Amino acid sequence: MKIISEYINEDKLVTLTGYIQEPSPEMPSVSEKPAVLVLPGGAYLFTSDREAEPIALTYAAKGFQAFVLHYSTGKRARVCKPLKEASEAIGLIRKNAEKWHVKKDGIVTCGFSAGGHLSAWVGLCGENKPNGAILCYPALELYSAEQERVLSEKNEKNILLSSLLGDGYSEKEAESLNLANHVQSDSIPMFCWSTSEDVLCTASTVIRFSQAYADAKRPFELHMYQYGEHGLSLCNHITANGRKQMVDPHAEGWLDMSVAWFHRNFGKPLVENKPHIIAPEILEVINEAKQ
Prior knowledge:
Layout lengths: L1 E6 L7 E6 L12 E7 L13 H9 L3 E6 L10 H15 L6 E11 L1 H12 L6 E5 L8 H9 L5 H7 L5 H5 L14 E6 L7 H13 L4 E6 L28 H13 L13 H11 L1
Parallel strand pairs: 3-4, 3-5, 5-6, 6-7, 7-8
Antiparallel strand pairs: 1-2, 2-4
């Protein structure tokens, strides 16, 4: 595996890290692989390590070229920079598809929480769209009038919206970040999972987004687990940070289901009943060893 790092913006604060598996003469049928661009969560204030490299490496083991985008956060995210950066990252992967052994028409995003918002956002509104998107307990609605009223009474601000729009945003600008508003008749396929116990990115917001997809007659797969708090990541001990609540063997199946969803929508490497043929490169090594 080769690890690459590319800067997305001029100040070199936004990085695209790639985990590239080189072709092997023993596996010519998978020399070109689909790609997943991982978008970690963190409320647009930071990018979570728990939702970055462990996710990428797990998808790499499933046959994907894997990338992680550490996009702009906090005040650096204003003017909706993460959307532009995610779009540029997808464009960069497509531009280097031959060099990085990627299928141009098999690029998906995988985002968590705020990264789930970004995953759907670039899929619906980006200049360079992925072919599909995987949404993990996504923050699909960043604005509601009731929420703004409650925050105002507490003299608090909407951190997510402030990060992306600044403090003086209008209701129209805020509403534009509720992603069900952007689902259209040609929207890309999406896979989504969440839990009914999530109090940060609630089941109702995910269901409303799903309903928008159903109304537009677009392909969408939804898995709503009964148990589990926000931020489960891989749902296992690797990303649990020592917390028992972050381990759930039932919800852990989400990643395998997302891979199956990808193959159903975009195909998988062909396997046929044919005789074993030793690659010439390997045969040469064997013959040299015999001498």
